[in-house]
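Lab notebook, bench 4. Still working through the backlog of constructs that have no structural model yet. Next entry is a single chain of 308 residues. Request: give me the structure tokens for it.
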Amino acid sequence: MEQNTEGPARVYSLDAGRPSREAGLRGVGRSSARRRLVPVVRHALLAGVALLFMLPFYWMVISALKDNTEIFARPIQWWPRSMRWENFGTAMNYPGFPFLRLLWNSVYYSGTVTVGTVISCAAVGYGFARLRFPGRDLLFILTVATLMIPPIVTFIPTYVIFKNVNLLGTYAPLIIPNCLGNAFFIFLMRQFFKGLPWELSEAAKVDGAGELRIFWQIMLPLVRSALMVVAVFTFLYTWHDFFGPLIYLSDVSQYPLSLGLFAFRAQRTTEWALLMAASTLATAPLVVLFFFTQRYFLGGIAMTGIKG
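Model written out:
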């Protein structure tokens, strides 16, 4: 009797557990498929956004290799019938558009401002982060608060100051204010310096190092990624600066590329292929710069979200 009662019960319990195990296996399969699908969707979305952002750049480069009729042809021609590489040479030697001179002006302007901004912001950020002096926090708050002031508010007083000292028509009004620090970059450098161990400074002081030596030989190499972020952002902004050179510079030979391209466009409204070629040549140095600095730049951007 006991065998008859226990046998069917044992069989019944095995049959009852089988559906739950099958359901569990189906759930594991669905979750595994979902985990494999999510990266595919994410990368497809990122690729689509990247292509969307690359489309204007592609159109500029490909238009530089066309003639004017192909640029405005309908339907749109995504590839030229014949590559007109001579457009680049023509743009560089076009009368009234001294490309090499404009390129040098942009390199000089952007490079000088970048060096000055990096040094000044690093020094001020180090002072706010590592030095103790009365009113330090108040000065830092006032520095950050200047981010709320529109640039046009300080533009007129700055213009009047440089007009009174007879520096209009030179690069001084464009370079000197930018070399006195940038509030956002000062804040960025302060956050990086605050994340460094205090033991490094104390050990250096025990060895007889002063604050200047600690800053220059110990701290700066440790925040190289942050310095690269500041340098790249400053160089890009200055390279594309249009309003400042338009106001302060009067001699065509002093124009940077941003202003030279505008003059080229204003004088020759129909030479679109040459304008695209000149724009491509003006963009090429930025592409080269990012190619050689991307490792430090991306590392600095990633560390920006970690430093507290």
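Notes after review: DSSP finds 14 helices and no strands in the chain. The chain has two domains: 2-60, 86-304. Flag for follow-up if needed.
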